[in-house]
Design a protein that fits this description.
The complex is a heterotrimer of chains A (about 160), B (about 375) and C (about 350).
Chain A (H helix, E strand, L loop, with lengths): L3 H15 L23 E3 L9 H5 L5 E7 L5 E9 L8 H5 L5 E3 L14 E3 H9 L26
Antiparallel strand pairs in A: 1-4, 2-3, 3-5
Chain B lengths: L6 E5 L11 E7 L2 E8 L7 H5 L8 H5 L6 H16 L5 H29 L3 H22 L8 E2 L2 E2 L7 H24 L2 H7 L7 H7 L4 H5 L6 H4 L20 H25 L18 E9 L2 E9 L7 E5 L1 H5 L3 H4 L5 H11 L3 H5 L1
Antiparallel strand pairs in B: 1-2, 2-3, 4-5, 6-7, 7-8
Chain C lengths: L6 H15 L3 H38 L15 H10 L11 H17 L18 H10 L2 H10 L3 H32 L4 H6 L6 H4 L1 H14 L24 H26 L10 H20 L7 H33 L1
Helix pairs in contact in C: 1-2, 2-11, 3-11, 4-6, 4-11, 6-7, 7-10, 7-13, 10-11, 10-13, 11-12
Chain lengths: ~160, ~375, ~350
């Protein structure tokens, strides 16, 4: 019969009309992200970080800028850690490269910002806030300070 | 004196139906197309040049972004090219995981094709249904690697991580639901007489002409040429699977549509077979941390959902490739737009573009 | 529910009420006419607003979504929000547009869409104007909506709009002919073009049972007349972006939009009157039956839109002239022969 396919199509849409709806009422209901979700901003645990710089070297896009200093016992510590989220590809290389599991994703996907400057995240400051240590000037005890920038790009201060 | 002349209509880069930012300069005589020249380059990001300043491993996330809808395939092509250069052997379990992921991605990509074809021709319900099914596949990928569209899952020597324990039951649930979903699409779209008459005998590309131009993928197979790289030069472990390659006869839009719908069914069967046969074991071979392939050049190609995706790498022995060129199927398939659209109406141009299934990220690279 | 035996009863009550305050009977007539005009306008504007919301909800449900559900209870105030937004938009006129034609086009489109509401029989004796050429008036007024499309298409100084405008003229003119011929079958059966006579003639059997082919032809041509899918290549959206409407924003575009929905109501109301028995029906008051049947027809038209892809222009033209026109003529021949045989035997 001519038009049989058309009637079949109409039957499909009628069945969908009375069927279950798939809309999720956001923001009342938010989906939980799976365990391996790559998104949001990098979360640094400054106690675990040994300032080796492998994450910055592994990154394809020079997203992580970290500076290390060494204190009087010639031990390396992390001086600053900036994550340029605007450049990030979310490829996971930094997290896979880290030998101590010091960084991870914070799984927060609602990270739109109004200003471009807010995309540069100071992970070390956030980590210190979270762990409760005050942001005391660590350069107090430094006598021999070796700035060892591990990023390849020139940055004028 | 009265005379008619042709006028130029610009289906500009911003248009609901060019799949991405593509400009098609149409020269029309009334409603009939005299010339349809695609003008690409609006999404050019210089990925091939970027490759020269990244190490081999750092380039994998960039390959995701070429044909962003079938990222697993892009990753696979690149990784297999470098493995060919270095002579790295991939463990068994990783091979099976690669097959499962790539074939699932083929289904997802063809669902996008079906959805955009439906909405370009006016049946927006078809698009909603297609994308809803694709969500199931994206949830699977999210579970396995944490991303929904740019995976970076396939690495040199295997895959980045083994699948979590909830992946296989979820995958089996999807495979059991999939035939019902396909049947619904066939009832809504394939049986529809209006769609049939829109697509039948429009944009005919003969097999001979397709071979001359270098068309690959479902567009070539719809023109009757039996060329699927998975059968002709199997890469990975494709020779262990039993699947058929659907062929068209005429090479019109309808054949291209039917070929892709059938391919979805075949991909689902490959995934089911791979699930059964998959052994336990390691998912990553031992690969040197700093990759320095020997100086030379290599070309390797795979069957992406859009056609033959090939990677040509010239290495000079250093950590960065000296030159990397991607043979992009959408770019080469798009050349045929002008001759396929000769003498058609404006509405047919939309149908031909949709069935050629070009993705601008891949066309412009 | 109050005991109402039809809208005519309400009218009579109002007339008596007015007659107590105003001595002059002619003045009472004028007042009643003004009230009628007000009622018709209310129906027209309410129709458009309600149908926008209905369309969005129905389309959403057919696509397994929820549709508008935030603004107002269940999303019912969505149309109000849309209207406010459209009124607040900047009024842009394209450079090089033919000013007066461009401005007049949406208004001239809305006028016929609204003017046909005067011949709808909402209830027994509840028609604004019971013309003895009722159905002919409808056909004449709805043909007037061809020209404003062409005006909009030409005056926009835009190639997409021009293509859309040309397509409209071709489509609407081609589908007028089968529509008129399908309606002719009804006129033959009822013997008159007056709307109330047609409805009265359907008291025992609805004409859809006697004229099924005419019903199918009417539904298809009505979809083409109001430019809805599968015949919406005028506002192709995926080919010519919005056809003649491309350059209109804000309230001007809203007028086009409202005209489209008013047209939708109009053709559904005509289908109800001609084929589905108008306001006839057991126990419930007549006007409730009328609106229920119109709602059913509107659902049918929306169902078509959200299921089918659109036709190409040459397929559309050949379908109209080569399939629908012969079908409609065949219907008239069969009806004529059938009527003759019926009279011969009774």
């Amino acid at each position: 019969m001519v038009g049989k396919g058309l009637l079949e199509g109409m039957r499909v849409t009628l069945k969908a009309f009375f069927g279950k709806k798939e809309t999720l009422q956001y923001p009342e209901i938010k989906l939980t992200m799976p365990a391996r979700f790559r998104g949001g901003e990098l979360e640094l645990d400054n106690k675990k970080c040994i300032s080796c710089g492998l994450c910055a070297r592994a990154c394809p896009n020079h997203v992580i800028e970290l500076t290390t200093g060494s204190d009087e016992q010639k031990k390396r510590y992390l001086k600053s850690y900036v994550y340029h989220s605007g450049l990030c590809l979310y490829c996971n290389y930094c997290i896979e490269a880290c030998p101590t599991n010091a960084i991870c994703w914070d799984k927060n996907y609602e990270n739109a910002r109004y200003f471009k400057e807010d995309l540069d995240v100071d992970c070390l400051a956030l980590a210190k806030e979270k762990s409760g240590t005050t942001t005391v000037e660590v350069a107090q005890g430094d006598k021999t300070e070796q700035e060892d920038t591990l990023k390849r790009r020139e940055k004028d201060e | 004196m009265l005379r008619t002349e042709t006028f130029t209509l610009n289906m500009g880069p911003q248009h609901p139906s060019t799949h991405g930012v593509l400009q098609v300069i149409l020269e029309l005589d009334g409603e009939t197309v005299v010339q349809a020249i695609p003008n690409m380059g609006y999404l050019h990001r210089g990925i091939e040049k970027l490759a020269e300043s990244r190490t081999y491993a750092q380039f994998i996330p960039y390959t995701d972004r070429l044909d962003y809808v079938s990222s697993m395939g892009n990753n696979l092509g690149y990784c297999q090219t470098v493995e060919k250069m270095m002579g790295i052997k991939v463990p068994e379990r990783a091979e099976y995981l690669r097959i499962i992921m790539t074939e699932l991605n083929r289904i997802a990509s063809h669902l996008i094709f079906m959805g955009s074809l439906a909405i370009d021709l006016g049946a927006s319900t078809g698009m909603m249904f297609g994308f809803r099914s694709r969500e199931r596949i994206l949830d699977l990928f999210d579970m396995a690697c944490g991303a929904r569209q740019t995976y970076t899952y396939i690495r040199f020597g295997g895959v980045s991580a083994d699948i979590p324990s909830e992946f296989i039951p979820e995958l089996q649930r999807f495979l059991s639901d999939f035939p019902a979903m396909l049947d619904e699409y066939h009832r809504l779209l394939t049986g529809n007489e209006i769609l049939y008459h829109r697509l039948k005998n429009t944009g005919v590309i003969s097999g001979q002409r397709a071979l001359e131009i270098g068309l690959t993928g479902p567009a070539l197979r719809a023109s009757g040429v039996d060329y699927d790289i998975r059968k002709v030069e199997p890469y990975g472990i494709y020779e262990r699977f039993d699947f058929s390659v659907p062929l068209g006869q005429v090479g019109d839009c309808w054949d291209r549509y039917i070929v892709r719908m059938e391919e979805m069914k075949q991909s689902a069967s490959i995934v089911a077979q791979a699930l059964e046969q998959m052994p336990e074991g390691a998912v990553m071979a031992t690969v040197p941390k700093v990759l320095k392939p020997p100086a030379g050049e290599v070309y390797h190609s795979i069957e992406n959902p859009r056609g033959e995706l090939g990677y040509y790498i010239v290495s000079d022995g250093g950590v960065n490739p000296y030159r990397l060129h991607v043979r992009r199927p959408s770019f080469i398939n798009l050349q045929v737009l002008n001759e396929a659209c000769q003498g058609l109406l404006i509405g047919d141009v939309v149908a031909v573009l949709a069935t050629l299934d070009s993705l601008m990220g891949e066309v412009d690279c | 529910m109050q005991e109402i035996t039809g809208l005519f009863r309400i009218a009579k009550v109002l007339r008596d009420l007015l007659g107590q305050f105003i001595p002059d009977p002619q003045l009472v007539d004028i007042c009643m006419s003004l009230i009628n005009i007000g009622a018709i306008f209310t129906i027209i504007s309410l129709t458009a607003v309600v149908l926008v919301y209905t369309e969005r909800k129905i389309s959403a449900f057919m696509q397994r979504r929820s549709g508008p559900n935030r603004v107002g209870p269940g999303g019912t105030l969505q149309s109000v929000a849309d209207m406010i937004k459209l009124m607040a938009k900047e009024d842009i006129m394209p450079a090089g547009a033919d000013k007066w034609m461009w401005v007049l086009a949406p208004m001239l489109l809305f006028i016929p869409a609204a003017a046909v509401f005067v011949v709808f029989p909402f209830d027994n004796k509840a028609i604004f104007a019971d013309l003895n050429i009722g159905i002919f008036y409808f056909i004449a007024m709805s043909s007037q909506s061809v020209l404003p499309f062409l005006m909009a298409g030409w005056a926009s100084n835009n190639k997409y709009s021009l293509v859309g405008g040309m397509r409209t003229v071709a489509q609407m003119l081609s589908y007028e002919v089968p529509m008129v011929l399908s309606i002719l079958g009804i006129v033959m059966l009822s013997g008159s073009m007056r709307m109330s006579t047609i409805v009265a003639a359907q008291q025992h059997t609805w004409f859809i049972l006697l004229q099924p082919i005419a019903f199918v032809v009417y539904v298809i041509t009505a979809t083409a007349e109001i430019n809805r899918a599968p015949f919406d290549l005028v506002e192709g959206e995926s080919e010519i972006v919005a056809g003649p409407f491309t350059e209109y924003t804000g309230m001007r575009w809203a007028l086009f939009f409202l005209a489209e929905y008013a047209n939708l109501f109009a053709v559904s109301a005509i289908a109800t009157t001609l084929f589905l028995g108008g306001w006839n029906g057991p126990w419930l008051p007549g006007w409730i039956w009328f609106f229920l049947k119109v709602a059913g027809m509107i659902f049918l038209f929306m169902w078509f839109r959200w299921t089918f892809p659109r036709l190409r222009i040459d397929q559309l033209m050949s379908f109209g002239w080569k399939v629908l026109l012969p079908l409609a003529v065949l219907n008239i021949i069969v009806t004529g022969i059938g009527m003759y045989i019926y009279e011969f035997f009774s």
